[in-house]
Amino acid sequence: MPNPITERRDRFAAAVRDTPARWNIETTDEPRSSRLHLYGAIGGWFGGVDAAELVPAIRDMDVDTLEVFVNSPGGDVYDAVAIRNALRQHPARVVVTIDGLAASAASFIACAGDEVVMGENAEVMIHDAWTIAMGDAEDMRKAGDDLDRLSDNIASMYAAKAGGEPAAWRELMKAETWYSAAEAVAAGLADRLDSETTTETAGDEAPAGNLFDLSMYAHAGRRAAAAPIPAAALATNREETNTVPEITEDRIDQLLTQQRNEFERIVLAHAAAPAPADAGPSWPTAGAFLKDLAGGSSAAMAFYERMTADAYTGAGTGDTNTPNTWVRDAIHLINRNRRIINTFSRQPLPAEGMTLEYLQLSTNSISVSKQAKEGDDLPKGKITLKADSTPVETYGGYTELSRQVIDRANAAYLTTANTAMDLEYARATEEVVRDLVREIIATQLAGDTHPLTLGAAATAYDWLDLVVDAADLFDDRGYTLDGSLVSKDVFKKLIRLEDTNGNSLMRVWGQGTNQVGELDLTGLKGDLAGIEFRILPDAPANTIEFHNQLAVTTWESANAPFKLQDQNILNLTEAFSKYGYLAAASQFPDAIEAVKVGA
Prior knowledge:
Blueprint: H1 4-18, E1 22-27, E2 33-39, H2 51-60, E3 65-72, H3 77-89, E4 93-103, H4 105-110, E5 115-118, E6 123-126, H5 137-162, H6 166-174, E7 177-180, H7 181-187, E8 192-193, H8 238-241, H9 249-272, H10 286-294, H11 298-309, H12 325-336, H13 339-343, E9 345-348, E10 355-364, E11 383-391, E12 393-402, H14 403-408, H15 411-446, E13 453-454, H16 460-477, E14 483-486, H17 488-495, E15 506-507, E16 517-520, E17 525-528, E18 531-535, E19 544-547, E20 553-556, E21 562-568, E22 573-585, E23 592-594, E24 596-597
Parallel strand pairs: 2-3, 3-4, 4-5, 4-6, 5-8, 9-20, 13-24, 14-18, 15-16
Antiparallel strand pairs: 1-2, 6-7, 10-11, 12-22, 14-19, 16-17, 17-18, 19-23, 20-22, 21-22
Helix pairs in contact: 2-3, 5-6, 10-11, 10-15, 12-15
């Protein structure tokens, strides 16, 4: 499946190779003055202007005036921040001239100048930071939070240069805003045009900017983008924001009256507001909750009944219960240990029924083509569905504790028992889907037709060919290629893939040459040419499959696993169990394809 982010990165890297970055320092005829040219992408990772080389050179310059000339499509944020800081910290007067393009990371390098000058027909572009990330939902949320933090920092840099609020600049960044030379001056990102007599048409592109491949951006230059929001509308014009209004006695009285009225409004609003609802019961751990439940606490019993009756995951807005984080932690713990279940589709289980009926696509003869001429019949076809069912099974276990342990032992003891049952529930239900996937693979390999094959001594390029063939096969079937599951021996072979020069095809740590993949050995997953590979535990040797997430569906009772308890008054023991209902089936068998190895 093509990855648009990876494609953008690759296009950027290719453009850098075609237009090598250049930076140089030259002396001028003026005493104690030097010039620095920053031409090309920013960042050593891209093969561009490397902060590790440039920053020491800037700090070594003993000059009073430093002229910096910029023509860059942007690049690595942190390299750009390091270069920006080196310019800001230098004791010299720094004059930045944007010769052609200052896009992305290059734009806030330019803002480091004591004076920023726009060359004739030069352009500036600002946008939100972007990155490439891989992992589970938590990883993606963290990556998103990191990007927001990074973009907020960049917005503050624009605000420091041009005035206005960082939040307003962030909105302009989200829209990917392009500025012509005159527009950049009006917005406060630059101080003047190179020649105040220059005539410029808004939207003219810098000829030098055409050296760069701008296809990784939403707009290929100012001409292709909408006009930026007027600086006055966002109060970003430095002259406007730096103007101090005249302070008079009448003006002071007016402001004091406004402040008093606002204070009275807030007091009255608080007085009229209803009293906050009772926060409700909260337990720091599962063990503390179980102790109260066993002790007959009505609050614990009510919470227990609520958990088993509803799809409860903690607490939400308007909830009278203080969030019990251990509930969320238990659900997260279970899902984290069910890697194969989470690889495929998941649905809530219906409230009733011992079997789950579903429809499966049997045949599809529908075709769509161009109407030969007006009035002709369109192509006719039909789909055939067959009904199938899968049993709803119960998975669970229990532990028995003495009444003395419940009443007198530390709550951590009960928490440990609770966590152990959660882990076992996760293991048992995960094994259901693993068994189903292994069964589907075995059935396909036992058949006569094998659209995907791989030689026993496959080279790195054979593997890349296989990915292309799989992507084409799934595209022909109307699916996206979401990933691949492989046996442990195959995963180890991926580690050893090398190109014709003996370079490892997969990056395990750091950076290398000609690498098109990355492996997370502790996470038992990796990436090859944009396709995620995971280990299918206990799969037979030479197992390889490609899939779309619709290949397997798991139906599970909401908020599983549930808890039950029962007290034995004869021997003063109490049993705690956890259980859940689950069913799994393949509704779209052609959304998974096993690879015949050694063919």
